[in-house]
Design a protein that fits this description.
- The structure holds 2 protein chains of 2 kinds.
- Chain A is an all-alpha fold.
- Chain A has helices at 12-20, 23-32, 46-67, 75-85, 89-116, 125-147, 152-162, 172-180, 187-216, 237-262, 292-300, 310-323, 328-331, 345-363, 370-396, 406-416, and strands at residues 35-37, 234-236.
- A two-stranded antiparallel sheet of chain A has the order 1-2.
- In chain A, helix 5 crosses helix 10 and helix 6 (125-147) packs across helix 7 (152-162).
- The longest helix of chain A has 30 residues, at 187-216.
- Chain A starts with 11 loop residues before the first helix and ends with a helix.
- By secondary structure, chain B is mainly α.
- Chain B has 2 domains: 31-75 and 138-284, Orthogonal Bundle (Cytochrome Bc1 Complex, Chain D, domain 2), CATH 1.10.760.10; 77-120, no CATH class.
- Helix content of chain B is 43%, strand content 4%.
- Chain B is built from 9 helices and 5 strands; from the N terminus they run H-H-H-E-E-H-H-H-H-E-E-E-H-H.
- In chain B, strand 4 and strand 5 form a beta hairpin.
- In chain B, helix 7 runs antiparallel to helix 8 (242-257).
- The chains are: A mainly alpha, B mainly alpha.
- The interface between A and B is large, with 58 and 57 residues.
Chain lengths: 417, 295
Amino acid sequence: MSEHSTYVPGNAVEKWLDDRLPVVRFAKEHLMDFPTPKNLNYWWTFGAILVMCLGVQIVTGIILAMHYTPNVAMAFDSVEHIRRDVNGGRIIQATHAVGASMFFIALYIHMFRGLFYGSYKAPREILWILGVVIFLLTTATAFMGYILPWGQMSFWGATVISNIFTAIPLVGENIKQLVLGGFAVGNPTLNRFFSLHYLLPFIIAAVVALHIWALHVPGNNNPVGVEVKDSRDTVPFHPYYTMKDLYGMVLFMIPFAWFVFFAPDILGHPDNYVMANAQVTPAHIVPEWYLLPFYTILRAIDFNILFIDSKLGGVIAMGGAMLMLLIVPWLDTSKVRSGVFRPMFKWFFALFAINFVGLMYLGAQPAEGIYTVMAKVCTAYYFIYFLVILPVLSRIETPKPLPTSISESVLGKNAHA
Amino acid sequence: MIGASNMNIRKLIITAAALAAGLAMAPAQAAGGGAHVERQSWSFGGIFGTYDTNQLQRGFQVFREVCSSCHSAHLISFRNLMEEGGPEFSEAQVRALALEYEVADITAESGRRPAVPADRWPSPFANDQEARDANGGALPPDFSVLAKARGVTDPFPTWIFNYFTGYQEGGPDYIHALLNGYHEEVPETAPHSADGTPFQLPEGKHYNDYFPGHAIGMAPPLADGVVSYAESEDGQSVPQTLEQYSTDVAAFMMWMAEPHLVSRKQTGFAVLIFLVLFAGLMYGTKRKIWAGIEH
């Protein structure tokens, strides 16, 4: 992408450096001059917000690790020690715990934005797949992080989720024992989850670097979904989008701070203030809210399908629900990217979003009565949306006429206004 | 083909409407079971709430004279009692109080010595088994974070409003309700067992409206007049009633669980005011930069 470079080394030192390691040139090309469509809306600021979230989690997490003790006898009290006796500990710990929730809010918005505006379509398939990989890694990291405070929900959540592995034929039990480091959740589990919880964020950061690289090859998609035609369609990333993204980040920090300072425990479960106890099972075992949609899909399969029993079926459905995202670019073959110009897609997408919230809600309810029926309906729609609706719509839908360029769409919008 | 998919849309919209209706109804069923816990008016409730020092001191008195004979609070140190935002006893008071207790110390001559402010609150029993043996098999839970380990499940849509009001007082509400929820006899409102037989209270248990399963091991710990509150200098006195004791001790337990609540909220105001003003400046700057661009 060197054609965008307007970098001229300013002095002899910069020239010397540029001939050996052109970091300044790289930064100027990719962080300042990078041509970015001028019509991006605020949904596009969530990429930068997610980078901020990852940074906040890593910084607060490193500080927490300085005071935390990964041992089943001491972990619970060491988290309380951080809250009570470490300088600023209550706020650092709350930022990390609330930060996980804020991370997922931003992550889901970012993904739904991609799904609506068709950001996964050619030539951005790799960009999308890397994003799905980041989502999976983040889910794993968050899940392992939730074990560390060693409360009742930590312990029983880990017990329920690790039992998933036993559904795999033949090797399931061995995989479970490898993951837990024993026959049940215990000290080895806590230690390895702590180790991996510290490692994975850095792997996520590396995949984020690839994600941004893959973004900078084709450039950004945009709300009308028409490719950039010439330089009139774009503005340099700096100062236009550095400023807009920073503004988005500050806005995002307002609800973030609200939870950290005024309701730090409201997103958690009271049972996690009870130390883990293998002898006492909580009345309802509920994972964190961001895992609930997939937990519902896991529980929705409560019937056997041919030779697949309900347990394995649930695991396949839950794994499938996540992994299916990887092939979305090939399920939706419509040439039109943006949902704005797809009159039928729009409605199915809106329903998909409502359905996702429904799945989330159902995950927190006991699996009985009307809830199991609703869980099946919502799970069915989740799969039908990707496997039937997207491919069929691509063939039968007549999209609205597209503007010829981003500039034209912008002028048109302002003429109407 | 298009006609068929329109049918689909209609069907799906009907499904969505049914789903939404279900969402609105469902938690009403979920909320059944225990009796409804009344919300109390706590001085530390809401975003402007702070602890009432006098109430915490009274709550400490109830804890010390009644609760602490069975319940431990192993994360609390004597020094916490003089810290800002808590009961704020004077240092002299705390030192004198600590001296009344003995703690184990292998470096002391007899293996025990009088406590100092840096020591943790001594537990009434040496271990969980001793605690169970002394309490009919039931383990009295540790008080350190108990007020945050209990909560109230609110029906839809109340729990959504809670995110905006910052309601975090479910624990003290539950504790207050529990302490006032005892019955000497099994009441008529007691739920029948699954096979329709009347509620059977196991030997040595007590009936409580709010305890899950209603059969609680703890005998009613508080009653009118069991703790003597000091009169203030101007002769004003606080009622010595179960209602007052339970409110005071629930407040004290919330402080034990969340000792930095006041400073956390104070910092929060500074942070939020800064962020709102900063966001305003950022918005102005962003508009200025984008002013010349059609977008």
